[in-house]
Amino acid sequence: MTTSDPTSAASATKKDSRFDWISPRQLKKLGMLGMNCRNVRYISRYNERRLYPLVDDKLQTKLLAAKHSVAVPELIHVVSTPHEVESAYEKLQELDKFVVKPANGSGGKGILVIVGRDDNGLIRSSGESVSWEELKRHMSNVVSGLFSLGGRTDQAIVEDLVLIDPVFENVSYKGVPDIRLILFQGYPVMGMLRLATQSSDGKANLHQGAIGVGLDIRTGRSIAAVQHNELITEHPDTGNRLDELEVPNWHQLLRLASSCYEMTGLGYLGADIVLDRARGPLLLELNARPGLTIQVTNQAGLKPRLENIEALESYHPTVEERIDYAIEQFAHAPRRTQPDLFT
Fold first, then answer.
1. DSSP code at position 4
2. How far apart are CA 59 and CA 166, in angstroms?
3. In this structure, which topology does domain 19-57+165-330 adopt according to CATH?
4. What is the pTM of this model?
């Protein structure tokens, strides 16, 4: 789809922002996985509930990853109770770049990214100033459960700031992008790059306005870009094209993600990975209930890929074998034969 003509662009935007014009029959033909099917057929069947804390709690995930030699951003400090906020404050005064996040948060809520200092205190990734008192108050809010699931008391994780890989500097607005990979029985079945925007406050969260870019499982090259359920070709803040992106270190990234199956024992899993300019791929977090927008960014449904894996007589035992199989089976088809979800 092109948007060079203003008139056609306006009508395309109106059309692309709605899904009620796509019939259930079309969705089934495209192999689109719905939420109910995802929950019943895949999450409930392949994810044992007792294993959920390993991924729902980001601190547990980091400790588990370290045990399995899976690279993660460095853990600087953990605040577990209100009276520990002061000691954390003293430690953080030595730093000018770090991230504070709730261990049990979701949807990007409660994440505070500090990229430097100014005369007023600290600087957020959005460029806004944050005083040290505001930082302490934020950590107290995290511990009290303001951002956690169900409002339960929580822990504040302080970790090292990931430095953006140069390949993404012109296509992500004041924030580090991440790569979401959907894994099924340890096979990487679909990938997506998430880019920060001004409306997402520098965070790579689609619900807050970040951009999702579908990625070819073979090469890590872009397939289609989506913001607010609309197809786009340029970043709204930087103006740079999104249809010529290619994620570096792609095979290394696939290996890291696929190894999370052995690490957690979860059969249906979303792995969020960041690319640090010095350390390469790092596991950011895991999700036992990954969202479904990734299908729109890939212009393809998840269901045929999941059914392909289910139909195997035996699963491949090693990470490399699973990656090779996924690349062979799920590489992006040429656009002339790829169904367009928006026609």
1. -
2. 28
3. D-amino Acid Aminotransferase; Chain A, domain 1 (3.30.470)
4. 0.87
